Amino acid sequence: NAGVTQTPKFQVLKTGQSMTLQCAQDMNHEYMSWYRQDPGMGLRLIHYSVGAGITDQGEVPNGYNVSRSTTEDFPLRLLSAAPSQTSVYFCASTQGGANTGELFFGEGSRLTVL
Amino acid sequence: GIQVEQSPPDLILQEGANSTLRCNFSDSVNNLQWFHQNPWGQLINLFYIPSGTKQNGRLSATTVATERYSLLYISSSQTTDSGVYFCAVAGSARQLTFGSGTQLTVLP
């Protein structure tokens, strides 16, 4: 049972480039989310989805897009990368909603924007 | 939204010591979880505990929802307990809010 799988684990981009961080889960969880973690800070929610076809913004959504075409996958797209998006990104999922379920995290993706 | 405060921000212990980490939150919650982020960056669930008390080996947690706080107890600490401990809460909103964590260092 793989749980939550993120790819790539490391990525270096130049300012203005675009890329997609992939997230897949094999637990049939309805709720999926993306967080970013910056040094000395907790995790901040970027976007989340309560099921296929449904997405919503979190605390820091600017500069990121998401879609949820299947229950398993929840990719995060950076449209035009900026140095302020240098961070570690975590994908997470839960069976219940975020306000009721136990959250499981992927191993993280470290992104550097030059 | 809900505010989450964790204390202390940093804690250094000798192996074998006990410790208590605290999480205060500003509103009623439906969900409270404790996570451990190890030195390799992995986030591991410790407890799902919106109320009551749970124990798992040397770790236990208590949430007093009416007084808006939760405590994480670590007994007989080991070097492998080092890392950052996060508390995260959610009320009626569909998102978990994280505290800024307690950095724990256990010395051999």
Strand tally of chain B, please?
11
- The total of helices of chain A stands at 0
How do the SSEs of chain B run, as a string of H and E? EEEEEEEEEEE
Number of strands of chain A: 11
Helix content of chain B: under 10%
Low-confidence stretches of chain B: none
| Biggest β-sheet description of chain A | 7 strands, mixed
Count of discrete alpha- or pi-helical segments spanning 4 or more residues of chain B: 0
The greatest interface here is:
A-B, 27 and 25 residues
Overall geometry of chain A = globular
What is Rg of chain B?
A: 13 Å
Structural class by sheet pairing and helices of chain A: mainly beta
Oligomer: heterodimer
Proportion of residues in extended strands of chain A: over 45%
Summarize the biggest pleated sheet of chain B. 6 strands, mixed
C-alpha-based Rg of chain A, rounded: 13 Å
Q: Which sequence of SSEs, written as H and E, runs from N to C of chain A?
A: EEEEEEEEEEE
Approximately how much helix is present in the residues of chain A?
Answer: under 10%
Overall morphology of chain B: globular
In the predicted model, the low-confidence regions of chain A spanning at least 5 consecutive residues are none
Distance between the termini of chain A: 36 Å
Report on the structure:
- The complex is a heterodimer of chains A (114) and B (108).
- Chain A has no helices and eleven strands.
- By secondary structure, chain A is an all-beta fold.
- In chain A, strands 2, 4, 5, 6, 9, 10 and 11 form a seven-stranded mixed sheet that branches. Chain A has a four-stranded antiparallel sheet with strand order 1-3-8-7, with no helix packed on it.
- With 108 residues, chain B is mostly beta strands.
- Chain B is built from no helices and eleven strands.
- In chain B, strands 2, 4, 5, 9, 10 and 11 form a six-stranded mixed sheet that branches. A five-stranded antiparallel sheet of chain B has the order 1-3-8-7-6, with no helix packed on it.
- In chain B, strand 4 and strand 5 form a beta hairpin.
- Chain B is globular and about 45 Å long.
- The mean pLDDT of chain B is 94.
- Chains A and B meet through strand 4, strand 5 and strand 10 of A and strand 4, strand 5, strand 9 and strand 10 of B.
